[in-house]
Amino acid sequence: MVELNHNHKMLESPGMLLHKRSHKKGEPLIDQLVKDMQLDNHIHAQMMSTLSRMSGGLQYMGHTSRDWVNKKQKFAREESQDDVKKLLDFFENMQKINPEFFYDYDVDADNRVRNVFWANACCKGSYEDFGDCVTFDTTYKTNKFHMPLGVFMGVNHHLQSTIFAVALVRDETIPSFEWVFKTFLRCMNNKLPICMLTDQCSSMKAALKTILPHTVHKLCWWHIMKKHKDHLALLYKADEKLKDDLNAVLNHPLMSLEFERAWKDLIQIYNLQDDEVMNSLWEDRHELISAYYKEIFCARMTSIQRSESMNRILKKNFVKEKHDLHLFAQQVDKCIQTSKAVEHAEAVANESEVKTTTQFGFEV
User: Fold this and answer.
1) Residue 134 contacts residue 107 (beta carbons within 8 Å)
2) Are 54 and 32 in contact (CB under 8 A)?
3) Cα(232)–Cα(240) distance, rounded to whole angstroms?
4) What is the 3-state composition of the chain as percent helix, strand, coil, each rounded to the nearest 5?
5) The pLDDT of residue 96
6) Which of 135, 103, 137 minimizes the C-alpha distance to 120?
7) Distance CA 88, CA 113 (A)
8) Side-chain half-sphere of 115: how many Cα atoms within 13 Å?
9) E-only strand ranges, 142-267
10) Which ranges of 170-220 does DSSP label H, i.e. alpha helix?
11) ∠ at Cα 145 (311, 314), nearest 5°?
């Protein structure tokens, strides 16, 4: 027998209807919001929480959590298409907004992008004002192609870190660094930095000698001491007084001759004539010891820790290893804008009238 009247519940709950294809709905604004959150490295649970609050509950989002996972994968595939073209389009658009924006790229024999360099207009302005001393360091795992990221940095008049330019290189070879330094000079109207701090990289050192022969090259003292800390710990263990005496020789001599005399006395007292690490420090003394460049303005910088700190900020808050090149460039631009906002806030704060608690002049 056939029962013609309905004998089951017709209207299911919103949570059940969400799983039916006929009730799934797409909204371009929501899709764009998810793309933005995906670019800003929001985890999936955070995205679902945000969409749930906006929709009034998980059952009213228009898609299930699994649907959003699939859509994010689709967005990622779409973003990966024509990556280099999108990167160059982004640079072209930045140059249309401000003609002072600078970018250049290098290709290999197969016409594949090998190195990329760019600098915002505000970064070029900062270099014009504060480009006497520059730090340059490379870091890894910032983009999908694992191209090392090089950041040119300095300090402004508030002793805040400021970015001058950014470069992506395929490898850390002499030709790559020569191209980067040549492009940096061309970008900055051939204004030479007085000194440049780098880590102990032989390729970088050779490229600097060729492209920037009149710039004083300094090595990061903290980086080198960290590299040799295990060996130095053994020396300190053999004689406890060595640590204090070595620090005194490295940090306190006023002139180069005083340093050299104190170093020779130290080596003789502790019988370290055949120690490879100590001999290596002696060979690099002109790039390491402050006694040799006391007349050079270094903006209080003795290490590349400012560059390394900016690299950490980039990797923690802006860029991820999975990012395509054009997304990476957009995120670096966000980092630069965030940094400039902090600089502007400090400048305005220093120009404002100070509100004092008392009427005494010494408080101001």
Assistant:
1) no
2) no
3) 11
4) 55, 10, 35
5) 95
6) 103
7) 11
8) 21
9) 149-155, 161-169, 195-198, 216-219
10) 174-187, 202-211
11) 15
Q: Residues 193, 165: contact at Cβ < 8 Å?
A: no
8 Å CB contact between 320 and 41: yes
pLDDT tens digit sequence for 131-170 = 999 999 887 766 667 888 899 999 988 888 899 999 999 8
Q: What one-letter code names the amino acid at 105?
A: Y
**Amino acid letter for position 39:** L
Nearest to 152 by CA among 288, 312, 311: 311
- Residue 307 in contact with residue 136, Cβ under 8 Å? yes
Question: Could you tell me if residue 226 is left (phi over 0), alpha (psi between -120 and 50 degrees) or otherwise beta?
Answer: alpha
Residue type, 35: K
Residue type, 97: I
Rounded Cα gap, residues 8 and 211, in angstroms? 82
Q: Give the C-alpha separation, 107 to 88, whole Å.
A: 13
Q: 79 by DSSP, 3-state: which? A: helix
Q: Is 207 in contact with 146 (CB distance < 8 Å)?
A: no
- The whole-model pTM stands at 0.76
Extract the tokens encoding 325.
């090149």
Burial of 213 (0-12, 13-18, 19+ CB in 10 A): exposed
CA angle 202, 203, 206 (to 5 degrees): 85
* pLDDT tens-digit map of 191-239: 999 999 888 888 999 999 999 999 988 888 777 888 888 999 999 898 8
d(CA 295, CA 288): 14
Is residue 120 within 8 A of residue 359, CB to CB? The reply is no
